[in-house]
């Protein structure tokens, strides 16, 4: 198995097109065509993790956080990022990161948090826009079903929990084949009128090349007429944070103690309690203060995330209880997610979970 087989499996679950503009997810070091000797899964690709990969004969480290986040102008070992880069490259260790793209997919990092709290009826808190495309094409009526089926097989036509969604309209197309053409219907050099079906489907942007290829391979015409249009619609399955409901309401103090236990954190920083039961819960892995207003607008009683600054706690304004569980603690289940993705795709391949606890924060 090659490294690209493993990274492609992760990218199929969390497409790189879903990462935020500031992010640096993907293959950071290494050659995708290397044979994979082993895979080590971690939250952070630290020096100790690279040492562990060497000791356990793994030449691919899959991390949540990109060790190279901003630009590297020098690589001379003056800080831990440069030392990781040097050690990984010298020892032929590939490093791959799935960061905000893994945060933004519906069954990603936030879903792992939600499962710890057994939340029900979850939905994306802040869906992303402009990730959907619509394809219009024109097909002879007798071939419309064949083309639809090919487009569906390539991943087009999903709307929420529904699949094979399309729209069709009947009309008449005209064309005149020039010199050297071999038209599917009609004769070259003569205007032809053909009863056609207009087929419309939507698809996520990362599937565009596959959808277009399916169209061209299944369409009978030499020259296929089609349009791809960017949609501004929110994509309900992709975005930041989740909001869901507890099975039963809990009083606030009991809820916070339970959150502390479930996330195995040494400290939960929280805003003043409101004296109201907690039923609806919003959450976001990592630094999530940017979603606080969304959590309030969603009617959440509590918001679980990390990295809130002092003045940001005031923004709760007694409308919600903020529970800051810590950055590492909110994302620690990502290793389990990586493991699930890879073992489901490759049942006979065993990725290894790092034994290094990379959390740089300690509690007394």
TrEMBL record:
Q: Which positions does UniProt annotate for a divalent metal cation 2 binding?
A: 64
| Annotated a divalent metal cation 1 binding sites | 65, 103, 327, 331
Q: Which GO terms describe its molecular function?
A: metal ion binding
Question: Any keyword Metal-binding?
Answer: yes
Query: Gene3D superfamilies from the entry?
Result: 3.30.70.120, NIF3 (NGG1p interacting factor 3)-like
Q: Name one GO cellular component term.
A: cytoplasm
- What keywords are assigned to this protein? Metal-binding
Q: Subunit structure of this entry?
A: Homohexamer.
- Protein family (similarity comment): Belongs to the GTP cyclohydrolase I type 2/NIF3 family.
Q: What is this protein called?
A: GTP cyclohydrolase 1 type 2 homolog
Q: What is the lineage of its organism?
A: Bacteria, Pseudomonadati, Bacteroidota, Chitinophagia, Chitinophagales
């Amino acid at each position: 198995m090659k490294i690209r087989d493993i990274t492609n499996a992760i990218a199929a679950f969390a497409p790189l097109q879903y990462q935020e503009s500031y992010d640096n997810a993907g293959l950071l070091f290494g050659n995708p065509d290397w044979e994979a000797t082993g895979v080590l899964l971690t939250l952070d690709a630290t020096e100790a993790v690279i040492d562990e990969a060497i000791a356990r004969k793994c030449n691919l480290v899959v991390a949540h956080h990109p060790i190279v986040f901003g630009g590297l102008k020098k690589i001379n070992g003056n800080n831990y990022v440069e030392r990781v880069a040097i050690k990984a490259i010298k020892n032929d260790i590939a490093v791959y990161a799935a960061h905000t793209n893994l945060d933004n997919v519906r069954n990603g990092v936030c879903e792992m948090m939600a499962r710890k709290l057994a939340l029900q009826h979850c939905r994306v808190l802040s869906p992303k826009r402009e990730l959907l495309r619509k394809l219009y094409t024109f097909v002879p009526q007798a071939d419309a079903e064949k083309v639809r089926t090919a487009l569906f097989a390539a991943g087009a036509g999903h709307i929420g929990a529904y699949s094979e969604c399309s729209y069709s309209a009947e009309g008449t197309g005209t064309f005149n084949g020039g010199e050297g053409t071999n038209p599917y219907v009609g004769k070259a050099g003569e205007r032809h009128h053909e009863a056609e079906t207009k087929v419309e489907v939507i698809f996520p942007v990362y599937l565009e090349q596959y959808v277009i290829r399916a169209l061209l391979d299944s369409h009978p015409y030499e020259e296929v007429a089609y349009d791809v249009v960017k949609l501004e619609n929110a994509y309900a399955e992709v975005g930041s944070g989740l909001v869901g409901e507890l099975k039963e309401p809990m009083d606030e103090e009991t809820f916070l103690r339970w959150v502390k236990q479930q996330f195995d954190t040494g400290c939960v920083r929280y805003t003043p309690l409101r004296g109201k039961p907690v039923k609806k819960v919003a959450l976001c892995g990592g630094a999530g203060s940017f979603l606080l207003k969304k959590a309030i607008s969603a009617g959440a009683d509590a918001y679980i995330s990390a990295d809130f600054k002092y003045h940001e706690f005031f923004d709760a304004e007694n409308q919600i209880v903020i529970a800051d569980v810590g950055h590492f603690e909110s994302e620690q289940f990502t290793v389990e997610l990586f493991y699930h993705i890879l073992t489901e795709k490759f049942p006979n391949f065993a990725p290894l979970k790092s034994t290094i606890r990379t959390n740089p924060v300690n509690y007394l």
